Amino acid sequence: MHRIRTLALLAASCCAAGAAQAQSATACPQLPVIANVQWTVQEGRDFVFCRAIEFDTQRQAFAVAIGRAATFKPRRGDRIGGQVRIDGHPTWWHAPRNDLTSAIVRETLLELASGDYAHIIVRADDPTQLARSLRQVEQLEFADVRLGGR
């Protein structure tokens, strides 16, 4: 009985430590539990650039630029597919024209509850990578994301 209680307490303390660490990292959105990526973060004075790097390939699956001003201007003519929801925000994916790379690119812009903007960029080498990255992005949670000073 004591062994089970000890294991339960140990597991709870590990989870609490992980949760505390996750709670303090509010510069980037919360990744889905099933994500095969981790954030690398570059912070500036009025922006945060979060890159989701795949564990196995070290490839950037997607990126989120959070700033006080919108850095991406979505164009209706670049919309692709139907409306999607990211953390409750209705939005559309855009496929901007890009002759510089053979990568498949998708972008969108969210206005967050904090008043900041999240520009999300997905780049993939093939449709399978694109679909996997889009599924992960559409499960991001922005509830605790705040730029410094807010």
Notes on the structure:
This protein is an alpha+beta fold and about 150 residues long. The protein has one domain (about 30-135): Protein Transport Mog1p, Chain A (3-Layer(aba) Sandwich), CATH 3.40.1000. The chain is built from two helices and seven strands; from the N terminus they run H-E-E-E-E-E-E-E-H. It has helices at about 1-25, 125-135; strands spanning about 35-45, 45-55, 60-65, 80-85, 90-95, 105-110, 115-125. The protein has a five-stranded antiparallel sheet, with helices on one face. A two-stranded antiparallel ribbon has the order 4-5. The chain is globular, with a radius of gyration of 18 Å. The model is unreliable at about 1-25 (pLDDT under 50).
Task: State the main characteristics.
23% helix, Protein Transport Mog1p, Chain A, disordered N terminus, 150 residues, single chain, 2 helices, alpha+beta, 7 strands, two-stranded antiparallel sheet
Helicity, as a percent range: 10-25%
- Strands in their spatial order, largest beta sheet: 1-2-3-7-6
Summing up helix and strand content along with how strands pair, one would put the structural category as alpha+beta
- CATH T-level topology: Protein Transport Mog1p, Chain A
Q: Biggest sheet, in brief?
A: 5 strands, antiparallel
Note the gap between the termini: 47 Å
Question: Mean of the pLDDT scores?
Answer: 81
Q: What does the overall shape look like?
A: globular
Integer-rounded radius of gyration? 18 Å
* Residue fraction in strands: 35-45%
How many domains, in number, for the residues? Answer: 1
Question: So what's the CATH class?
Answer: Alpha Beta
- The CATH architecture can be named as 3-Layer(aba) Sandwich
The number of distinct helices, counting runs of at least 4 residues, comes to 2
**Stretches with pLDDT under 50, minimum 5 residues:** 1-25
